[in-house]
UniProtKB/TrEMBL annotation, chains A, B:
The gene is hisD. Binds 1 zinc ion per subunit. This is Histidinol dehydrogenase. It comes from Commensalibacter papalotli (ex Servin-Garciduenas et al. 2014). Zn(2+) binds at residues 258, 261, 360, 419. Keywords: Amino-acid biosynthesis, Histidine biosynthesis, Metal-binding, NAD, Oxidoreductase, Zinc. One of its GO terms (molecular function) is zinc ion binding. PANTHER family: HISTIDINE BIOSYNTHESIS TRIFUNCTIONAL PROTEIN (PTHR21256:SF2), HISTIDINOL DEHYDROGENASE HDH (PTHR21256).
Length: 432, 432
């Protein structure tokens, strides 16, 4: 962990270095992923079962790739009722927030003789990748599946690896809550390939969402274009901006909530008070000891953590905008000004009673957010990811007579004769 | 060109084959593009000038990379006033349509103790790639730049190669109309790299849009993630659906307007009347002869063109949805039903007075559209490409008390202790 003062002469250099290493580097797996994709594309289910045997130690026939309704029901029965209730609360709040995003169609006539606008429609199908092992999060299933459902996507196919054949009941229960019925016990690049190209038993989808390791990320990158993808997610990040009127332990836990995700995760604390910074640093060290994932959190905090002492909240906003963090917590009295000044952040959590973990589970807004500074140009997952717009244009005789000649002029300049003629011949038949 | 009847037994097989070759294959240029990107990232302006000398035969210093205001002004003066007026009409209609897309922010309180919503903001900067040579289209400059301007993007940097140092006055005039002042005389993968990584003279951008050859497409694909990109565009396509109450020459010209773009372009005509189909095919052959780009159009029509005879408009809709065409023209009496049944298309042009070429230039909706079936999951360029959403969540004491326990339950299940503690410690300090 580094402590930086914006007043130190080498601040910008060190700060830039801090941000430089944030992207997920998948170049090492490019070649193996290309091979896996090619193999699935050519050999379908056979290759899929081969990889599942090799990587997940699960010897399986194509007929058994799909997890049965009975298995899903059995999984749900294993989950304590309090936890099912908690998933319910989460699902309801996520659904409610995403329903408010449903966009309006546009349809108007203009004075030139045109009717025009656009229509939003859901895509037909989407695939949801869910990682296995320690990163198998039921909350992630809800966050990825519910927007698709709200958007109106008819078919949602989920893939989750089951190493050694072990099903994860929580993930299946969350899928059940989200209304997913088509689930395959496959993972890795081979699962992404199956979703993108289809196999004999798995129909291809139009769009693939969900987090994964470097293989999954690289596979999504490589199939992008043939299908849509949500984003290539990097390590998780949080920036916490807080003044001294906060409980240092709360701040410390918020920082560690990012750090415990991944050794590559980054937690940055920004404050205007050196004494308070010291208290938070001490609290981090104390709280680290009681974490189940202490080793991961410690490594993340040591390698990528930072505390930045600013001279003003204006300066904090500038730094936040340079970081364009995935998550931003604002716990300062002048929250409103700071909120207005932040242009680039995936999600903002405001006030001392709104730790980012609330947003991870039950806030309502999506927890799939742009990482590694991608908040400069992209947004968190939403129903927009699962919808597309078709524009339309309708002209009457007056319309083409009004603007056709301008189009002909430009078309001729561009050397596109048929473009020009397709308009001028119509004008001619209208007697113009 | 193939004539297909939906009644023939091998229809689906041949139809599938027709669609299979549509994507732009950039695999052959993957390695050279990777090298160019790496070289620009490491060596900046020096490498940029080297490539410009090698590929565009233009020996240039970094100080001369930017096209001067004087050069832009001089270009505008070369353009006939009628053409400047035509560009004006186009620019105004494009601006007017895109202004209607400006999305609303969301901000509400819920009964559980939360304020939540999202805020749309433009990205800070965008780069616009404009191809050189025969594919240098002023209309494309307007279609790419105006949505960025309407979205509120402050900085727009354009790159256009100038082979042998030749400026394209039309492209510069269109850029001037669109309000672009920062223009560099560079092209290819090296221009994409300069926009993505920045060099000593070119500041990096957040997002890159614009069409290009395989090198440009592959470069955009490789920098995706570090910056945003619009899409990796493939060859242009049109599907024209028309009944016999149309002028066969008009239909033929509409088909050829796609074919003349590119040998890889695809034009498909769908009708329910064999005689009318024959008339259109004959008209295509007649009109081909008078086109400036006859050779290209002929090759495209011969290799990729198709005429499909359907039994009903329902069947036409099914076929259109399988194609998910970039452009769709509907010229049938029952337009409304067909329009409703089409779920996947980039842009729809309705009625006999609305050839697609109107939309290419002066319709208003964007002409940058999803190709190769990507309309299944993506949309044409719009101001949404240049904006992003930041969600926010604010809780009071009641909020965390209401839903905090559910979040703690899920966090503990996921083994994320710090997540759970960041909430439970706050609940504790509230006396819960």
């Amino acid at each position: 962990m580094q402590v930086l003062l914006t007043t130190q002469s080498d601040f910008q250099t060190i700060f830039n270095r801090l941000l430089a290493t944030r992207a997920m580097d998948t170049s090492a797996v490019k070649q193996p992923v290309t091979e896996i994709l090619e193999n699935i594309r050519k050999n379908g289910d056979t290759a899929l079962c081969d990889y599942t045997k090799r990587f997940d130690r699960l010897d399986i026939t194509p007929q058994k790739l799909r997890i049965t309704d009975e298995e899903i029901q059995a999984a749900c029965k294993q989950i304590p009722v309090e936890l099912m209730d908690a998933l319910d609360i989460a699902a309801k709040r996520i659904k409610s927030f995403h329903e408010k995003q449903l966009p309006s169609n546009l349809h108007y006539e203009d004075e030139s003789g045109f009717e025009l606008g656009y229509r939003w429609l859901p895509m037909d199908s989407a695939g949801l990748y869910v990682p296995g092992g320690t990163a198998a999060y039921p909350s992630s299933v809800l966050m990825n599946a519910i927007p698709a459902k709200v958007a109106g996507v008819k078919r949602l196919a989920m893939c989750v690896p089951t190493p050694d054949g072990q099903l994860n009941p929580l993930v299946l229960a969350a899928a059940h809550k989200a209304g997913i019925t088509e689930i395959y016990r496959i993972g890795g690049a081979q699962a992404v390939a199956a979703l993108a190209y289809g196999t004999q038993t798995i129909a291809p989808v139009d769009y693939i969402v969900g987090p994964g390791n470097a293989y999954v990320a690289e596979a999504k990158r490589q199939v992008y274009g043939l299908v849509g993808i949500d984003s290539v997610a990097g390590p998780s990040e949080v920036v916490v901006v807080a003044d001294k009127n906060n409980n240092p332990t709360h701040i410390a836990l918020d920082l560690l909530a990012q750090s415990e995700h991944d050794k590559m995760a980054q937690s940055i604390f920004i404050t205007n008070n050196q004494d308070f910074a010291d208290q938070v640093i001490q609290a981090v060290n104390e709280q680290l000891d009681i974490l189940a994932r202490k080793e991961i959190a410690q490594s993340s905090w040591d390698q990528h953590g930072a505390v930045i002492i600013v001279q003003s909240w204006d300066e904090a906003a500038t730094i936040v905008n340079q970081i364009a963090p995935e998550h931003l917590e604002l716990m300062v009295e002048e929250t409103n000004t700071l909120f207005e000044d932040v242009r680039h952040a995936g999600a903002i959590f405001i006030g001392k009673w709104c730790p980012e973990a609330i947003g991870d589970y039950v806030g309502g807004p999506n927890h799939v957010l742009p990482t590694s500074g991608a908040a400069r140009f992209s947004s968190g997952l939403s129903i927009f990811d699962f919808m597309k717009r078709t524009t339309f244009l309708k002209s009457n005789e007056k319309g083409i007579q009004n603007v056709g000649p301008a189009a002909v002029a430009i078309a001729n300049t561009e050397g596109l004769t048929a473009h020009a003629l397709s308009i001028s011949q119509r004008l001619k038949s209208l007697g113009k």
